[in-house]
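User: Modeling request: complex.
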Amino acid sequence: MNNKLALSDDILLRVEKPARYIGGEINMVVKDPAKVDIRFAMCFPDVYEVGMSHLGIQILYDLFNRREDTYCERVYSPWTDLDKIMREEHIPLFTLETQSPVKNFDFLGITLQYEMCYTNVLQVLDLAGIPLHSEDRTEEDPIVIGGGPCSYNPEPIADFFDFFYIGEGETAYDEILDLYKANRAAGGTRKDFLRKVSHIEGMYVPSLYTVEYNEDGTIRSFKPIAEDVPARIRKQVVRDLDTCVYPDKQILPFLRVIQDRVVLELQRGCTRGCRFCQAGMIYRPNRERSVGHLLAMAKTLLDTSGQDEMNLSSLSSSDFSGLQELVYAMIDECRERHVNLSLPSLRIDSFAVDVMQKVQDVNKSSITFAPEAGTQRMRNVINKGLTDEDILSGAGKAFAAGWNKVKLYFMLGLPTEQDDDVKGIAQLGNAIAAEYYKLPKERRHGRVNVTISTSYFIAKPFTPFQWMPMITKEHFLENQRLLKATVNEQLNAKSLEYHWHDAETSEMEGIFARGDRKIGPAIEEAYKRGCMYDAWVEHFHYDIWKEVLDKHGITIEFYNLRERPKEEILPWDHIDIGVSREFLYREYEKAQREEITPNCMKQCSGCGAASFGCGICKQPRRKEAEV
Amino acid sequence: MNVRICFAKYDRLRFLGHLDVMRYFQHAIARSGMPIAYSKGFHPHMIMSFAQPLALSMTSDGEYFDCELEAEEVNADELCANLQDAMCDGFYIRSVTVLPEREPNTRKQTGMSQIAGAMYLCEPLEGCEDALEGALREFAARASYCIEKKGKSGMRAVDVRAGVHAIGIAKDRVGDIEYLCDDGIFDVPATLVSGWGSEHSEHSLHREGAAEFLFAVDAGSENNISAELIAASLRQLVSCEIPERCFALHRMELYRSKDGRMLSLAEN
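Assistant: Request completed. Predicted assembly structure:
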């Protein structure tokens, strides 16, 4: 291993947490860059501790490095202190493994996990010395690829990427890398390569499409520039998770990162169909790993990491069919090894209470519910299949078992929301607290603590709410005040606590989420005026963003506050996630009628994901009682 | 039973802070399968205790921690080999020593509380060698040299010179060491190449042909003379302009005191 660091000792001693920049972690892959054909820089455009917490990069890192001809290295956004020094001293952005300039790589892959990282994408390109616009890049520059959830509507950042990989990374990268080598061997150019890439299913090369707009700013047409370029880009899907590669050695950071635990991915996709949830739609169909496979994976991951915490990851763990079998088997293994087991997104029922008692400290931990809305009517609109009865009986069981802290998550500004729905949030909090005081005094442990958190509903592409208006920031703040006041009126007000999220970031996120190519220049200008780390409230400059959006004629009315008509061409309509537009529209109509749609496990609603021919779509449905 | 582990820290990892080093070893011990004992209670943790933290950017051959094992008998060589297998580049396990059983009714002596001495190498950075060598000779010739140090209750003066027991200078890394002073408390090396050092010397940061200043000093809770304190003293004695960071610093060893002599922490 080359031990020369890209940064001098002087700089490393000047910046916060120099361990962010030195690499060398356990399970980092060491190769001789001179002996590979392809160098791939994999980037998470946020600070190291955030980026290193992401499972997707671990999967792709392992996948690429299994190829002998490829060396995949990691790169993260330098924190603001180092960013400043790198600009002043003209230090090019480097990878952690070989500490070499990103500019010299064949590929720069950037994962797009949330919209507020867009200015950081530009930071990474800029510090690396790569032209920001795809059209300005030469044969000397890496091919810049985007992936991850935000690539399902990549239009706001389309100009900055050479292509987007739509869907799951395990399936098509081998073909892409082989194509790259063949194109290079044949003396092909960057342009030749991108044209050929567009023929691979799931690959979206923005430069090969033209957009025309109507006078009102909506899209008139979106077309490929040539016949051989597909008009629709269909996402990539892993058919069988058990046979697909999974990293048996995950990189173990020296620093304490956000997700400081090994991650066991139980399943992909979700069967619930909540109407606000993008992940629930874009990752369809739901596919499970087998319990045997997961147990073997868990053992290997603990052996190779020495981590003392393991996280069972999934969009909705309770829906995983082998959960009881898996968890009871893991509890013993984990206890022997002094490993903590964490199970997020677990529906609170008798099984969950039993498991939590075994793996958590009753005195310290809290139980969590995400009802998302305060009234049954509102929950029917969003198709959140959780009733007051479920919540109250779950909380009651947990209280009886010794818990006295509850966290509740809600959204404000959901479509069709009325004042009663807002007040309902406080009333539900109160009812939960009341449930606690039903316990005889000797079984209580002090006062119950119910924390209510609200966030701002953001309409996302590929959800039934993609046509829906969002509420204004002012309306959102009014709702907050109304909720705050209602919380204070409750009988158990002293047991209730209310937290809320920042509205300004959410407003911007809404614009990016459903934005089109007209947003790109504004993002670039905001970046040039110093915006970066927008996902970090302390670094978010609402005033600059506001000015830049005004200057570019981008209005909140157009992007966030308007109901989009059915026939309007949406900026992401050329992406095909398998779930049909017709299904989403049916769901949009059902939402307005306050009708619910059953869980996929109970009944197929014909969303279109069955066309992938795998997962839940090919399995017999479960009985009512099991759902 | 208790064991004491001696390890070295080199290269990139000199930018790893003390807390991260502790976390790293907790994971490494779990990977190596060492039968470490856990504390009782709902959140059990490994029973281990680290000796003196090392300043960021320093390399070291003399880092220590003690840990308690859940075993009657162990093969120290095997523990050492297994732990070495769990290391990443830059960490090297130098030795695993079984500590003698504690006499009944005596206080537990961990590595930390035993520390009485340390040995450091200070390598002048390029361009500062001559000026710093002059400063070194002047420092050695003095009977006392005081410097302001930030303590728990504000600034206080520390006599750095009084805490230094031996000063040596080697013109290059493989040459003999010339001693400017040595009061005999430490066993000082005649040359810089030790049996261990040669094996891993390629991992060392040190520049080819650079001069090395060696210091054997008091350390521990009572009178801790750190490498930075020595470096700061020498820099003060230089009359010309030199950069703030004028040395690469390296810890060679930590010592405990026994019968008026300094013994390596690895020795029983």
